[in-house]
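Worked Example 4.2. Read the sequence first, then its structure tokens.
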Amino acid sequence: MQDEQLFRWLPPLAAHAGPRFLQIADALQAALADGSLKPGDRLPPQRQLAARLQVDLTTVTRAYDEARRRNLLEGRGARGTYVAAPKVELSARLDLGMNTPPPPDGVDFDDLLQQGLAQVLLRADKGLLMTYHLAGGSDSERKAGAKWLEPIFGQVEAQQLVVCPGAQAALAALILALTQPGDTLLAEPTTYPGVRSAASQLGRRLVAVEADRDGMLPALLEQACRQHKPGLVYLNPTLQNPTASTMPEQRRRELASVAQRCNVRIVEDDPYWLLADAPPAPIATFAPEQVSYISTLSKCLTPGLRVAFVLIRDAQERERFLAALRSFALMATPLTAALATQWILDGSAGALLQGVRKEARLRHRMAWDILAGRYSGAGDGLHVWLDLPAYWTPAQLARAADSAGIAITPADAFATGGKTANAIRISLGSIKDRARLQTGLQRLSHLLTQRPESYGAAVV
């Protein structure tokens, strides 16, 4: 290469196209994809590139670090930096089964984490970060929770919130606080498996109430309440896991009205509300004294925070909930709760949420293009529900997908009773690299065009 050719892959940097170091790394990746750069090509020294782009050296250093993280570059000591040869993927398994947020588009998560932790350690009392917190969250953590819920409810009284170590812990504590061993819990026939697991472990009986495309049927809920005298009703009304359907406002109002008439508690598990496009108001809006509302950061930001906010209006019920929570979880981890608080109050959480939303929508468009005509979805959230052709069962397809190096989740993992749907859930966020997600979806699409009898794994 001549010196001038070292720069041929670089586009001009745009003022409003995201962080400049990411623009540089993206340009490098695009140049590899279109053949402008090839493995073994030498790249400009960092100082030369910084001068050429009129940016500081730190920006270029971060760009090269990001490119190395993507396995695009390799250093060869004094000889300089070169485009890396493709790495052989020893593990071809592609996880379409775990429902986690995708890496946020246009957001440097590593930098966000470093800056957030630095602020926490700078401002917080280190002793408080390493001791017990038994009150369900500090004042600042509850205020952060109120701010997080503001787009959902408007103004929320911070003292009505409890900070929990994740939604699953909150759900288990609500079951302990609101029901007795042997009590019946009601849920939709296809629902989040965590409620089935918690009910089973805690000695409660889970009964399915039929649903249509809009969610649980109010008349059948009322009938089940009179028949079973349930301790609580579990609902996940927004981008429901696993069907990705969103319950319309009228159905929410009707279910709230049934709960009030039958004096039964609703647990509204709502992890995806902030990812949805203009969702209806929560059920808790229509029956505030009847509904305990769970909002977790795990699906909108990152599971590693292990922070959820639970809105419970009644003070005595809040105390029972706290007592139940302390019996097995005590508290959210102070360090991650402090980080969540810092991010929410300084606006970083909002930026991260928007990055996750943007990336999720890009992935939905990809899934729609590859699986066109095979599923209906709103184009938001973290997962899709795929109805299968009659010649496949969920179990058959899951086995075939596993042999093809793909993890999916069959419908029976979500069944609470009655007939199991002939469907699978596909999660779009757990594969971090978009190109590998595309590969996984294409493999799955190819499988769906075959019949089970024509698909066979090798026998060795």
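Now turn to a second chain, presented in exactly the same format:
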Amino acid sequence: MKNYETVIGLEVHVELATKTKIFCSCSTAFGGAPNTHTCPVCTGMPGSLPVLNRQVVEYAMAVGLATNCDITRYGKFDRKNYFYPDNPQNYQISQLYLPICRNGHVDIETSAGKKSIGIHEIHMEEDAGKLIHDEWEDCSLVDYNRSGVPLIEIVSEPDMRSADEVIAYLEKLRLIIQYLGASDCKLQEGSMRADVNLSVREVGAEKFGTRTEMKNLNSFKAIARAIEGEKARQIELIEEGKAVIQETRRWDDNKEYSYAMRSKEDAQDYRYFPEPDLVPVVISEEWLEEVRSRQPELRDEKMARYRREYDIPDYDIEILTGSKHMADLFEETIAICGKPKEVSNWLMVETMRLLKEKNQEPEDISFSPEHLAALIGLIGDGKINRTTAKEVFEVIFAEDVDPVAYVEEKGLGMVSDDGALREVVENVIRDNPQSVEDYHAGKKKAIGFLVGQTMKAMHGKADPAKINKLLAELL
């Protein structure tokens, strides 16, 4: 069998985090009742006129700068004509001839090493509505809430050769955009969507094979499976002497197979022409510099700084910076308590454990840095032990309670009366002669049992280190 190489390019659609739509003042909030976030503009009523949302341009510029693109100083919008029920005007306002960003790249790293993935362009456009298929009534309904939500489409060069490279590229893009605050990039809510253009060719061949485009990909796992499935399908066709047809295919992740949707359109099929209702977008040097000056510290820079400033492992740094929300929480907590190792430990161990148990993402963390810092302070001041702290943290994680008030209210503070603690330890020694004998016979583990008995008698409200010290002294 011949050796084949996969050639992959991506079209990534990202819904921008503006409060209003790209050409009208309707809300972009996710999850509203059908057709409640609409107006004459985003439902394509005759005579309505679009007005460009300035924030959309600034988000597009910010993403372009962060992905090393050239920013187009004089840009225009174009009409992309097609007829579909979720497209109320029967055209989409997009950018074909003068997209806002061009000629960029992002650097990725996989097990195969480092690689630069080219970005052909980034353009601004409006989203379409959403079709809801009602199987009971055997009909389709249209919700126009999403119609007019601002998008950027990031078009890569066909530089990727494996599913690993694709996932690394998407994760890098997602983190860049999240750090910029331009989008939450939630694949499950459709605010980040990827279409995969894929072809295969013999290893060493210069000419690309015939590509297909796969849609309906709403998770990184689905994208990886779709790439492997389509690669196998195309190789099988070529091996059988059949032609690969250029078409758009729909990936069914349950069946792990793609189905033909329609023949792949070319630009001329959409009859693009300049949008007559919008003026050109002129980006001045001052405006560009204003956006550039607001660019935040991105993940790569943040990781390098953490290595310089905090004495924590590289693995922790990778996890903490893998979510902007987690990184912000880490830094804000340190600013309050000044204990980076302690903060890292609470986020890396207990927080990650609870996130996994509850099947949540780091972005779902709702507790405040003030309350995590206060919990760390209670431990440092000897007011609670670590066992109690873990119990209190679970409540903080779930309800963001004030740990100081909670510990006082529930009576969880450690007993500070050394005389009372000594009395309990003496009782434990008297009641467990066998353990005392084992300890004196050289079985040092016996002290662990005695510590446990003391903690039990104190209802967990004692410092294990202090108990250890007292036991060693009295034994």
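Notes for the reader: The longest strand covers residues 113-126. The CA atoms of residues 8 and 77 lie 28 Å apart.
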